[in-house]
Design brief:
The chain is of the alpha/beta class. 24% of the residues lie in helices and 19% in strands. The protein is globular, with a radius of gyration of 19 Å. Residues 61-71, 351-364, 376-385 have a biased composition (Basic and acidic residues).
Length: 385
């Protein structure tokens, strides 16, 4: 069902062998070479090769992390009514984005730690989604193993200990599809194949790059969108198959790193600019597309499709296009009602332990961004739509 507007307050409390992907001839964020951009060659490895790769990743992870961090998170106990199915329950999920700091950083800002604590202890969502840029890579000579160990200690492990599934999508600083960052993508895949969330996967052949799963009847689809320009035809065909097979989902949420349209100042050209993708999302009644990279919160809408740009939790918050105010660091908390109605709000982060996380009021944000064919309206504004 399409999204309907309603404010929501959170519950406060009481290879190298890679099994599925080889990346060919891409450029880093900032542009693509060739008219067609990146081409993703999808291959199917043998079952034995998959097993060997998974075992190596798990062994390497076990050497770097405490034993409990290498295990999939156990689902939190649920107590629905006897006659209730998961699709009869509301789903609460949170979204975080761009948590990284300076290049090569292995530690995280106090605001990241406090936001994770707040989500775990106060909001207690059914799921947390990341729209990318978890580590500060995309540069040669960095210690990626140590960077990921720092991220897992600050973010992954607290969610795992709380039994909250954590679903990620790659950012350009995590696993850019640029050819020169091939090794970073390998590391990304190894790190997250050892930390698969306990969710009902719809298609995990290409996890953790692009994949799909359901939670309480809601479809979530991760896109591999780490470079500027449209997603490739192969991934688009895959997305169509997933959406076609899950038309009956209670709600549909697509998430990736690069946004469809400009949101923040200084990154106006760093977008997907993908009319075919947007048309497909509308064709299959996708409710919500989440994106990061622009480091500014904006709950936008084009027609019936909601386009939510995430603020950062790490370094480098930016101003929205046409605004003089830096977008506050924040997280998004969303609720999908049993009837499929989706509501969401952003809550400002703080570096103060147990500090306030005030809701960011929509009235403080521009009514629209951009002009002409790229115009995006705030999701509570009906004028002009």
């Amino acid at each position: 069902m399409r999204l309907l507007m309603r404010n929501y307050a959170p519950r406060v409390s009481s290879f190298v062998v890679l099994p599925v992907l080889l990346l060919v001839a891409c450029t880093q964020v900032g542009g693509r070479s060739g008219a067609e951009g990146a081409l993703v060659l999808e291959t199917r490895a043998s079952d034995s090769a998959q097993a060997r790769a998974t075992q190596r990743g798990a062994r390497a992870s076990a050497e770097r992390q405490p034993h409990e961090d290498t295990k999939p998170a156990s689902p939190r106990p649920q107590t629905p009514p006897d006659d209730a199915s998961p699709a009869d329950e509301a789903l609460v999920f949170a979204v975080v984005s761009d948590l990284n700091g300076r290049y090569g950083a292995q530690d995280y800002a106090d605001g990241v730690h406090e936001s994770v604590r707040w989500l775990v202890e106060d909001v207690r969502p059914d799921l947390v989604v990341s729209t990318g840029d978890m580590v500060a890579g995309q540069r040669a000579g960095l210690d990626y193993e140590a960077m990921w160990a720092g991220f897992h200690a600050a973010v992954t492990t607290p969610f795992a200990r709380a039994g909250i599934p954590f679903a990620v999508t790659p950012g350009n600083h995590d696993a850019s599809a640029g050819a020169v960052f091939y090794q970073e993508r390998i590391t990304f895949v190894e790190q997250w194949r050892a930390r698969r969330p306990q969710v009902e996967f719809v298609d995990d052949r290409f996890y953790p790059l692009h994949y799909a799963f359901k939670t309480k009847g809601v479809l979530f689809v991760s896109l591999d969108a780490t470079t500027v320009g449209p997603i490739d035809a192969t991934q688009r065909r895959w997305l169509r198959e997933v959406l076609q097979a899950n038309r009956d989902a209670r709600a549909k949420v697509v998430f990736g790193h690069i946004p469809l349209y400009p949101v923040s100042q200084g990154r106006e050209t760093e977008i997907l600019r993908d009319a075919k993708l947007e048309a497909m999302l509308n064709e299959f009644d996708v409710d919500l597309m989440l994106a990061g990279h622009h480091h500014a919160y904006y709950p936008g809408r084009r027609g019936d499709l909601r386009l939510v740009s995430m603020a950062c939790l790490g370094s480098g918050p930016r101003k929205l296009i046409g605004s003089d105010v830096v977008s506050p660091k924040s997280v998004v908390v969303a609720r999908v009602a049993p009837d499929g109605e989706v509501s969401l709000d952003a809550y400002a982060s703080t570096s103060e332990r147990h500090g306030a996380h005030p809701k960011i009021e929509r009235s403080t944000l521009p009514e629209s961004l951009n002009e002409g064919a790229q115009r995006v309206w705030r999701d509570d504004v009906t004028e002009g739509l």
